Amino acid sequence: MKAAVLMGSDSDWAVLKPAVELLKQFGIESVVEVASAHRTPARVREFVTSAPEKGVGVFIVGAGAAAHLAGVVASYTTLPVIGVPINATPLNGMDALLSTVQMPSGVPVATMAVNGAKNAAVLAVEIFAVADQNLQKKLADYRADMVKGVEAKAAKVKAQL
Hints:
- The protein has about 160 residues and is of the alpha/beta class.
- The protein is built from 6 helices and 5 strands.
- It has a single domain, classed as Rossmann fold (3-Layer(aba) Sandwich).
- It has a 5-stranded parallel sheet with strand order 2-1-3-4-5, sandwiched between helices.
- Helix 3 links the parallel strand 3 and strand 4.
- The longest helix is centred in the C-terminal third of the chain and has 27 residues, at about 135-160.
- The radius of gyration is 17 Å and the shape is globular.
């Protein structure tokens, strides 16, 4: 069980790195690659089509601007593809968001918020957890920790009143 994390440029790594770190927290290995839908399409195709034999079960794909990478990945696989639009232009990521979310019927890309790599990792874990009770438990614990974190912050604010 691995997640492939693909980005169109090395400049996208800063956004996608937290996803890889969160996957690691859940015990999910990542395969990370930089390949451009426009500049290296053969490399993208080779990476995607060979991923299942490497144990990949889901793709997390980040790209900015035209952001065609997630759609291209989805065209080469029936595995789940999670798109992370990246804020890389003066349009603040809206161009990437629209490019990622507007997929044709039958070739879906689950689209996260602009720069939403951590949620992409959580969704990947949820996908794997469908058939893994250990991951289901880890997700429940993760959510419980979030509740504790919010409660601690709320207490800190109330203490200042």
